[in-house]
Specification:
By secondary structure, the chain is an alpha+beta fold. It has 2 domains: about 90 residues, Nucleic acid-binding proteins (OB fold (Dihydrolipoamide Acetyltransferase, E2P), Beta Barrel); about 300 residues, Bira Bifunctional Protein, Domain 2 (BirA Bifunctional Protein, domain 2, 2-Layer Sandwich), CATH 3.30.930.10. About 30% of the residues lie in helices and about 25% in strands. The protein has 13 helices and 18 strands. The strands form 4 sheets. An 8-stranded mixed sheet has the order 6-10-11-18-17-16-13-12. The chain has a 5-stranded mixed barrel with strand order 1-2-3-5-4. Strand 4 and strand 5 form a beta hairpin. The longest helix is centred in the first third of the chain and has 23 residues. The structure holds one RNA strand.
Length: about 425
RNA sequence: UCCCCGUUAGCUCAAUUGGCAGAGCAGGUGGCUGUUAACCACAAGGUUGUAGGUUCGAGUCCUACACGGGGAGCCA
């Protein structure tokens, strides 16, 4: 039996295979908190039931030792979770000695050094289960809408955007780079399959040392042929709302463990507010932040704007030249591009960046040259504008930042099993 | 790359003006028949990040370096 199914086994004899999370004893009774990956269950062992020998064995089981217990499932208000196991038999698989993570407080540095063990603790268990739910619901959302999953390459010959933030590696004697984005490849794929998305790791060698940055993070990038800018925003707000609803429905226990107030999440429903870049500047001016046309927002600015709303908010129509080279100028106001960032509430900042892509061959060629990109590398990308070019667009959603917001975590490093941070790659 | 803070027992932290390095947890031993990060008792645990300097005397003051944390820029 798995612990999460305990309520279906009341009165029955079952076997739990797991690890000792913690134990307490009181003379001739011991309480073993056993975890099996699906949950934690209090198991009671009394000397009168099992005899002195087995009782003594149980006393020797240390924190995180692996063990198998057999007994009867009982409903009991005194047990955390409402169910406990009355132990009849216990087998030790392996005794763990000197487990470094005690039930008391630890610092982040120590916990990160022991990330491989930290994953076993309750809070990390809850967070990573929410991560799994988010990933699954994202896939479900796109699969239900007829999107085709296209895996983008991780080794690439050139940069999608800037060249300073790339991890370089040797590819049989020529330089190759770890992917920064699958987007350009998705543009090719959407011309073949109509609606596509990729979901995988991306790499940024930025020397960023903040609560919002990882050097390796996961991004989901849809790309849709013939989509309009407005349809793109609708897709994003429907996707976010779908994911939040799935987490609220499927992760009640996990949200409780991490102490997440779910009220702000319950408000997440389309439509999301839309703020023109020009009006975002005005909001900031009223808050005492004077920015010039063309200035980008930092973390503080994003927080000021998102705090004006109790839902995620789109900021759109950024000045041309401020964003990536492939973004399409709005024909109605050509000094801006048809791009939008989605800012999460509660100060979590940008979780989505999306845009219409340039579909005109000559304009794209001009932009590539203007950005000093090597034309050789973009020949195939230009081909897409040569052979049946169509209006198209898409976006990229950062998984870790989305999870940090939904779980209201102070730092993204807890949102990924093994975070890769500035100059840190162990374990 | 820049700014700020920190580094004392395995872990989390104390240590007054520069004057005998100390708790809790973990680990050890013993006790307790319903515990909830259980509790009680006892014992053990230290080259105070490294290198130099000031001083009768440095965990404490100064300099450099290393490592860690937070933030800026940049970005999802």
């Amino acid at each position: 039996m798995y612990i999460e199914e305990a309520k279906n086994f009341v009165g029955q004899e079952v076997e739990i295979k797991g690890w000792l999370y913690n134990s307490r004893s009181s003379g001739k009774v011991q309480f073993l908190l056993v975890r099996d990956g699906t949950g934690i269950m209090q198991c009671v062992i009394s000397q009168n039931d099992v005899g002195e020998r087995l009782f003594k064995d149980a006393e020797k089981v240390t924190q995180e030792s692996s063990l198998i217990v057999k007994g009867i499932v009982k409903q009991d208000e005194r047990a955390p979770g409402g169910f406990e196991l009355v132990i009849k038999d216990l087998t030790v698989v392996q005794i763990a000695s000197d487990y470094p993570i005690s039930p008391k407080e630890h610092g982040v540095g120590f916990l990160m050094e022991n990330r491989h063990l930290w994953l076993r603790s309750r809070r990390q268990w809850a967070i990573l289960r929410i991560r799994s739910t988010i990933e699954n619901s994202l896939r479900e959302f796109f699969n239900e809408r007829g999107f085709i999953l296209i895996d983008a390459p991780i080794l690439t010959p050139a940069a999608a955007e800037g060249t300073t933030t790339l991890f370089e590696t040797d590819y049989f004697g020529v330089p190759a780079y770890l992917s920064q984005s699958g987007q350009l490849y998705m543009e090719a794929a959407c011309m073949a399959f109509g609606k596509v998305y990729c979901f995988g790791p991306t790499f940024r060698a930025e020397k960023s040392k903040t609560r919002r940055h990882l050097t390796e993070f996961w991004m989901l990038e849809p790309e849709i042929a013939y989509i309009t800018f407005e349809e793109n925003l609708q897709l994003q707000e429907e996707m976010i709302s779908f994911v939040v609803k799935k987490v609220l429905a499927n992760c009640k226990e996990e949200l409780k463990i991490i102490g997440r107030d779910t009220k702000p999440l319950e408000k997440v429903d389309p439509p999301f507010p839309r703020i023109h870049y020009r009006d975002a500047l005005e909001i900031l001016r009223q808050k005492g932040k004077e920015l010039k046309w063309g200035d980008d927002f930092g973390g503080d600015e994003e927080t000021l704007i998102s705090n004006e709303f109790d839902k995620p908010v789109f900021v759109h129509h950024f000045p041309e030249g401020m964003k990536a080279f492939y973004m399409k100028p709005d024909p109605l106001e050509p000094q801006t591009v048809l791009a939008a960032d989605l800012l999460a509430p509660e100060g979590y900042g940008e979780i989505i960046g999306g845009s219409q892509r340039i579909d005109d061959y000559n304009l794209l060629l001009q932009r590539i040259k203007k950005n000093n990109l090597n034309l050789e590398n973009y020949k195939w990308y230009l081909d897409l504008r040569k052979y049946g070019s169509v209006p198209h667009g898409g976006f990229g959603i950062g998984l870790e930042r989305t999870l940090a917001w939904i779980a209201k975590l102070p730092h993204v490093r807890e949102t990924i099993p093994f975070p890769r941070l500035l100059e840190k790659i162990y374990p």
